[in-house]
Amino acid sequence: MKTNVPLYQAKAELFRSLGHPVRIRVLEILQEGPTPVRDLLAEIEVEASNLSQQLAVLRRAGLVTSSREGSTVHYRLSSPEVADLLYAGRRLLASVWTDTEGMLAELRQTSAS
Questions:
Q1: Distance separating alpha carbons of residues 26 and 42, to the nearest angstrom
Q2: Which residues contact 30 (CB under 8 A, 6 or more apart)?
Q3: Which of 2, 28, 75, 80 is deepest in the core (most CB within 10 A)?
């Protein structure tokens, strides 16, 4: 990620890098610890080339790192804050969905009267 861009633009780039279901799933799996690419492939069930592209986006964004052990490449979260961000996303979704459920209940109640 470029350091000579405004903070709001850097944040937008970060969130853009999270904007794909495969990338989110990779990050969720990596919360459990370093994982070989073959295990990511087995868990996510996408083509190897697709996974490779998504991992490259996550690497460029600084969200994951990789290391090689023999012929095996392992990926890991670059910092615990990545897991914190995923947790914050879950909390936000739970809050939004709760608000939506409340609004639906209110709409049903007012339309019944």
A1: 11
A2: 64, 75, 76, 77, 82
A3: 75
d(CA 96, CA 86): 15
Reported pTM: 0.82
- Separation in Å, CA 41 to CA 46, 61, 90, 107: 6, 21, 24, 44
Integer Cα distance of 107 and 113 in angstroms:
10
Q: Note the pLDDT tens digit of each residue in 64-86.
A: 999 999 999 999 999 999 999 99
The alpha-helical segments, DSSP class H, found in 3-79 are 7-17, 21-30, 37-44, 48-60
Spans of all domains in the chain = 1-78, 79-113
